[in-house]
Prepilin leader peptidase/N-methyltransferase (Shewanella cyperi), 304 residues
Amino acid sequence: MNNIIDVFSQSPWLFVVVSFIFAACIGSFLNVVIHRFPVMLKREWQQECNQYLSEYHPALVAKVGEAELQKPIDNYPSKYNLIIPASRCPKCHSSIKAWHNLPILGWMLLKGKCANCQTPISVRYPIVEALTGITVATLAWHFGPSWQFLLAALLTFGLIAMAGIDLDEMLLPDQITLPWLWLGLLANLNHQFVGIEDALIGAMAGYLSLWSVYWLFKILTGKEGMGYGDFKLMALFGAWLGWQMLPLIILLSSLVGALVGITMMLSKKLSRENPIPFGPYIAAAGWIALIWGQDIVDWYLAGL
């Protein structure tokens, strides 16, 4: 193991290339997570609702019918998780060959279409794979072969999965957000990014910062301006990067979110009443702060 680390330390570009290839493969799996995990959650919620109705409202269950309640809420196979079934074309259901699953290259070789029925394959798949590869390669160059790199890569995988799910479903699942929050606190027990005191205060301050904005907006307008998942994502970044980076993350995410929202409204792709997911902007801002946060803060303070 030490020999491998020595090789990567002596050849930074080799480490970057290997990191890109490995991360792009992980990105292929993240596509699966982004698509399938919300389906799994919805099925779990359906089962919980049916159990509640059966226990507390048996008359309603008898009236509607047990079979009606048990009807699936989607058209996917009964056994559907992150592993089963194997990837197939959603239209012709033909199996996807191993070489078709090559990150980025597989989509390019297929020219963005199913090999069997020529149904278009979303360009999002290679985008997620490339994004994962590029971000982790950037981490490899910045941190080198170290525990910080490994932890930052794990954080990046979680952020991409959460951002993709939020874009699709307006949802930041606790099943991903909370374990990554605890991972940040665990990492900082050994001062990997900040001290544990800064991390603990950051987790609390991150949650309360957006929680306060949420309630102030609701009191003034009577509307909900954001979801609780956004609070937890800010708490996550507080746990990883400390309370000192929270103002920068809030500022960057707000600026990007406002620019995207205004652009979409001007192009008439979004009305004022349509909500937009804020999680991807927080995730992007937090990832930038992970690498360049202190440099940005120092540059800003130097200009005062």
Q: What stands out?
A: The longest helix spans residues 12-56.
